[in-house]
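Figure 3 (text version): structure tokens given as input.
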């Protein structure tokens, strides 16, 4: 007894091709990044919010385990986060040997460098604690 209809047997390969094409189109559309997601905002509204504990300094990454801030060598925390001016994460090994003006947070319990924000020129121009020696007097030689 033959239970298969000949017309269904002929239609099955075509239906499979159409289904495969539809599935491929769906996957391609899902994987293609939208224009809004592909663009990174350059300034994120101009101002980023930094924690109150963040200090200002000059960072030089010596290795993935050590960094130098204002001439003082520090160990980096295992979960060190370095943020670019666009607020994207930057891997420490890509910055080795380069100097940057940064805001940074040191972990109080371990003394390790925990978070770093690479500053844009506008952010670096804003005054912040730790950005040099602050004093309320001027030497006569400076006039």
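Below: residues designed for each position.
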């Amino acid at each position: 007894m033959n239970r298969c209809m000949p017309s269904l047997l002929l239609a099955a390969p075509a239906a499979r091709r159409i289904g495969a094409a539809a599935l491929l189109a769906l996957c391609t559309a899902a994987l293609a990044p939208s224009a809004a997601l592909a663009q990174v905002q350059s300034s994120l509204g101009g101002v980023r919010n930094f924690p109150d504990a963040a200090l200002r300094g000059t960072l030089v990454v010596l290795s993935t385990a050590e960094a130098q801030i204002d001439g003082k060598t520090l160990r980096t925390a295992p979960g060190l986060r370095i943020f670019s001016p666009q607020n994207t994460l930057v891997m420490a090994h890509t910055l080795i040997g380069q100097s940057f003006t940064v805001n940074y947070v040191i972990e109080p319990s371990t003394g390790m460098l925990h978070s770093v924000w690479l500053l844009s020129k506008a952010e670096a121009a804003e005054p912040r604690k730790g950005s040099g020696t602050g004093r309320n007097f001027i030497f006569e030689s400076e006039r």
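The CA atoms of residues 81 and 115 lie 5 Å apart.
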